[in-house]
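Re: weekly structure request thread

Next one in the queue (192 aa):
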Amino acid sequence: QVQTPDGNEIMKYKRVILSNGTERLTAYTKEHAYFWNSSLSRWSEIYETSDDVEYWDIDQAGDYLVATNGIDRPLQWDGDTATTFENIDTLYNSSDFISKAEFIKVFNNYIFLGNVTLSDSTVLQHYVYWSNIGEGTDADGFRQDLSGDAGSAYIEGAGEITGGFGLWQSYLCIFKRWSVRKMWFTGGSIPF
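Done, posted below.
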């Protein structure tokens, strides 16, 4: 195992395979995100957190890696050409955005964010937000006031969303403190 430049323990690894066949390995510490630069045989930094984080939640959306750490804004990385993570455009109406999320998951070509904090500091521990289909990494991909199918939902059940998301058969499972709920794709303007 090669040590990361910040000297911190690697908390999580994520492997990404792009549509062109390129394969990337990423690693996450409490202070940084890195990708393995095979031409230099070392870890190259792609993100520095705003504060020490306790965990990372990561998934792949097409050729993008999407991530959240509960401290910073939800992030995206184009593993083919980009050299850094960038903020996902989580603007959900004309002026408000999701400033942080505890969990992230790609399900049926939508990006889901769970247990979120909004730009006005409102904490919505029981909510999930989802992007327009196939547009989660695009500008306006989470806009609910345009003609897409982005949306949000209050998730019933005991406790706040504390365990993130999982996939089971054709369901998105949402793990709350004392319960598990599931969502499924129904189609139409309110797809879940």
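The first strand starts at residue 12 and ends at 17. The mean pLDDT is 94.
Next request, please.
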